[in-house]
Sequence to fold (249 residues):
Amino acid sequence: MKIKRILVSQPEPSSAKSPYFEFAERNNVKVDFRPFIQVEGVSSKEYRQTRVNILDHSAVLFTSRTAIDHFFRICNELRITVPESMKYFCISEATAFYLQKYIVYRKRKIFYGNGKFSELVDVIKKHLDENYLVPLSHIHKPEIPQLLEEAKVKFTKAILYKTISSDLSDLKDVNYDILVFYSPSGIKSLLQNFPDFKQNETKIASFGPATAKAVKDAGLRLDIQAPNPQAPSMTMALEQFIKKLNKSK
Fold:
């Protein structure tokens, strides 16, 4: 079997410098992108029913740009004016800079980590007197509340958006040699859209332990797993797999 077509279950990269484009050229393969999941905001009516009052909190903890978008959307819909005294704690510097879309950055108290939630918690531990609001999707990493509880942080989860399966019915007649997944929700979407999916010769690649587990729990064969000691990125893992496959012929 020669690898010719790969489908990545994510939106197409906005940057021309994406490693996927270089990978495709080097290996003479066609890489298509299609998000298997989409984000849908919780309505202001649904949010009111949770009885979580945003203004009861002195700090907001953001794990993604999506969380920022939906936090300010809900504030706008509920006509809540976020006080200038509100502190913001972000997973990374890039996420913190994204706040500029909604606030005057230099006038606010903003803290950030290096991309790992555990390291952000170390920053938060220096501010344990704050009452944190944590905007999340209805499906989120269990380590988020777990690490906050272990650190004795006072916080409230605010479910502001949902991750739902995309409609992939137009892909029915499209055959790919490799399907690439980055989240358990992507696997769920595959099986919701194609309940009779038969893997056969199709290779499945997954990124991260939670996605790998979802592949196996679904009874599918996991052919490529990243990150691993030899391949810290998905494109490296794919490239190594293709080279190994070509050598075995």
Observations:
- The first strand starts at residue 5 and ends at 8.
